[in-house]
Design goal:
Blueprint: H1 9-33, H2 35-52, H3 64-67, H4 98-101
């Protein structure tokens, strides 16, 4: 009679947990190692923005009313019809303009 060995679910869980903790630790070490280079890149980007006189940050690239909330008009999200559903996921992340909330 051949005996089959079954792996317990707790053993699988423990192994997966250890692998995930090790992967997370490696990601943290990698982030620490590239932190200095990120500062240089940020300084370079800041210099380019200053030289090109860029004013605002583009938050999302999907729709014109989510690129910069201050630049979109109130009804841009409903441009197809008044009860149109949101086409882009970023529209759910951008809060409603303050005058509409009040």
């Amino acid at each position: 009679m051949i005996k089959t060995h079954r792996i317990r679910k707790s053993t699988v869980f423990l192994v997966l947990t250890i692998v995930n903790v090790m992967a997370f630790s490696l990601l943290m070490l990698h982030a620490r190692s590239v932190q200095g280079r990120a500062g240089e890149l940020l300084a370079s980007s800041s210099r380019i923005a200053r030289e090109l006189q860029l004013t605002d940050l583009c938050l999302f690239t999907e729709a014109r009313y989510t690129r910069h909330p201050a630049m979109g008009d109130v009804h841009a999200a409903f441009q197809d019809h008044p009860i149109a559903l949101e086409h882009f996921p970023s529209g759910s992340l951008v809060p409603a303009p303050l005058p509409l909330v009040r």
